[in-house]
Amino acid sequence: MSEKITDFKVNYKKLKIFEEYNTSEINFPMVLSVPHSGQTFPDEFLKAVKISLDELRSNEDTFVDELVKPASEAGIPMISMNIGRAFVDVNRDKIEIDPAMFYNHPQKDTPMGRRCRVGLGVIHRISAQNNNIYDGLLNYEEVCERLKNVYDVYHKRLQQLVDKCVKKFGFCLLVDCHSMPSKICSIMNDGKNIEFCLGNLFEQSCPDDLANFLKNELEKRNYHTTFNCPYSGAFITFNFCQPRRKIFTLQVETNRSLYMEENSHKKINDFQKVSTDLSASLKALAQFLLDFKI
After folding, report:
1. Sign of the CA dihedral 223, 224, 227, 233?
2. 12-290, which class in CATH?
3. What is the pLDDT of residues 189-201, one digit of tens each?
4. Where are the domains of the chain?
5. DSSP state letters, 32-98
6. Residue 38: other Cβ atoms inside 10 A
7. What is the pLDDT of residues 28-52, one digit of tens each?
8. Would you tell me how many other CB atoms lie within 10 Å of the CB of residue 9?
9. With 60 as the cut, is the pLDDT of residue 13 above it?
10. Is the predicted pLDDT of residue 109 greater than 80, yes or no?
11. Backbone angles phi, psi at 224, to 5 degrees
C-alpha cells in the first residue's frame, strides 16, 4: 500500500445496517444469522477505493439470506447484514485490525491474528482476488466510526435476539449461515466435493446431537456434508457460544456452485431446490429443538 492518504467520511444516517425477519414472536429456540450477504456500500467508500464493485462483492456470501429465508418464515428469527463484508466484516473480532493500514493508528505494534495478517481482518485490506482495496493509508478515526455504526449495531441486535430466545426457551442455538467458494470444496480425497460444511469448533460449540441432526437432514437430501472441514467456525460461532448460559452455536457453509454462478453473481436453475432443501433441514432442526433436553 502506498504512503498516500485515502480519507473519507460516511453519512451513516443513509444506511440501513441489517434486515430482520420474524423477530417479534419467537416460535423456536433458534436464531439465524447471515453476516456476509450484504451488498450495500456507502457511496463515499465506493468513491475512495481502487477496485470495482464486482470485485468488492467477491468477498461476500451472495444470496445466503435468500437461501435460508424460507426457514425463517416458519417462525425462526433471522438477522441479515445489509452492508458489504469488504466494508466491515462482522464475523471478525474488533481487535483484528492491521495498524499498517493507517496513517494515524495509535499502536503500531498491535499483535494480529492469521486472518488479519493476510488482509482479511475486521477491515479487509484485500479482495478475494488478492488485490488491494485501497490506494493509500486510512484514517483510524474513520474506521472506528465504521465499527460503532455498523459492527456494533449488528452485534447488539443479534445478542438481543439470542437473549430473547434464552428467556423464552431456556436455551438458544445460533446458526450462523455462510457460503464457501467451490474451489475450496474439492479438497477431500474421496473424490466428492463438499456441499455443506457444519462448523462446531471441533465439537465445542453445541451438543453433538444437534450438529448430527442437521448433518443427517442434509444427507437425507443427498448432500455431501462434513464437520469442520474446511471451516470449523469463525468469530460469531466462537464469541456467542456460552454453554454455561445454554447458548450454543453452529456455522453452516454452503458450496456456492450449488446455487449460483460464482463469477457473475447470478442464480442458477438449482437455486430454489437448494433453498428448499436447506430451509427444510433447518426447520426440522428447529422442530427437534422444541423437545431437546439440555
Report:
1. negative
2. alpha beta
3. 456 799 999 999 9
4. 12-290
5. EEE-S---B--HHHHHH-SS-HHHHHTTS-TTHHHHHHHHHTTT--EEEE-B-TTT--TTS-TT---
6. 26
7. 999 999 999 999 999 999 999 999 9
8. 11
9. yes
10. no
11. -75, 115
